[in-house]
Amino acid sequence: MLQSVMTQPGKIEFREIDKPQPQAGEVLIQVRRIGVCGSDIHVYHGKHPYTGYPVVQGHEVSGIVAEVGPGVAEFQPGDKVVFMPQVTCGKCYPCQTGQYHICDHLKVMGFQTDGAGQEYFPVAAEKVLKLPENVSLDEGAMVEPVSVAVHALRRFGSVSGAHVLVLGAGTIGSLVGQCARALGAAKVMITDISDYKVEMAKTCGFEKVVNPRKEDLAKAVVEYMGERKADVIFECVGVQDTITSAIEIARKGSTIVVVGVFGQKPVVDLGLVQDHELTLIGTLMYQKEDYLRAIELVSGGRLCLGPMITHRFPFRQYLEAYHTIESSGGNYIKVMIDL
After folding, report:
1. What is the pLDDT of residues 112-150, one digit of tens each?
2. Does the predicted TM-score (pTM) go above 0.90?
3. Is 298 inside any structural domain?
4. Are residues 16 and 138 in the same domain?
5. What is the DSSP string of 249-300?
6. What DSSP designation does 325 have?
7. Domain range for 204
8. Helix, strand, or coil (residue 202)
C-alpha cells in the first residue's frame, strides 16, 4: 500500500509498504479523507516544537472499516468511522483522574507518533467511533476539529444564553462560533483581519463579523452586545495582537479561553487580568464525550461545514496541498486530501 512520509520540513516522499493486519482489539481503517490543520502546517515549516522527522501525518481522518482484529465485535467491515488520535499512558495523574487528553506523556498521531497518511491504518477499537449514515466522509474528517471546538466551549461551561466573542475566523474559530450558536448562545460575534475569512464567516451564517483593521472592535462589541459585552472571548489565532485585544476589550469579570496555538511566547497584561478579575482558561484537545457531541452536531445538520472545505487534492498531491497553502495568502479554510 502507499504511505506518505514527511522526511524533513517541506519534503514528502511516497513509499510502498505492506498493508498492515489488524491485531487483537484493533480496527483496520481504509483511509478516505485527511484534513490538513494548522499544526500540520507548522510541521511542514519545521516549526512544530514537539515533532521530529520522518513523520507520517494525518489526524483529521475519516474512513471505512476494512477489517477487524480478534476480539472486536462493535465494528464491522463497511462501517464509516473516525478515530481519536491521542496516545496516552493511562498511568499518570491526569490519566488516572479522567483527564487523559492532557496525559503527562501525551502523543498525537501525525506528530509524536505516525498518523494515518496511508491507504490503510490500524487503530485500537477503543479510539474508533462510528459515523451515522447521513454524515459524509468529508464531514467525518471535520469531526476532529469540531471536537476541538466543542471541548473549548465546555472548558467555559454552558454557553446557552451567553454572549460569545470569537477572535479568529479560521477553521477552529469558525467552528467554535458555529458550535456556540448551535448550543444556544444568545449572541455570537466573530472577527478576522482577512477579508477572505470575513466573507467565509458570513457564508457560514454569522450575524456579526468584524475586521478589526477596518472597524473599532471595542465599539463594535458594545454596539452588538450592549454594555454587557462578551461573557466569554475565545482567542483562536495564537498571536500577540489577539490575546492583547482579548484582555483589553473583555468586560470586567469575564472569561478568556485560549484556543490558539502560540508559536511565540506572548506578553500578557496580568495587571489588567488581576484588576478586572478576568479568568484565563487554556484548552488543548478533547475527550470522547466531545467527539460524541461533535458527531451529534454534524449529524443534526447544525453546522456549516461544506463551504469550509475550500481546497481538495488527491493523495499523490499531498505536497502540492502545502504549496497551495503557502501561496494562498491565507485565502483558504480547510484543505482536504482524498484517498
Report:
1. 999 999 999 999 999 999 999 999 999 999 999 999 999
2. yes
3. no
4. yes
5. HPPTT-EEEE-SPPSSPPP--HHHHHHTT-EEEE-----HHHHHHHHHHHHT
6. H
7. 149-282
8. helix
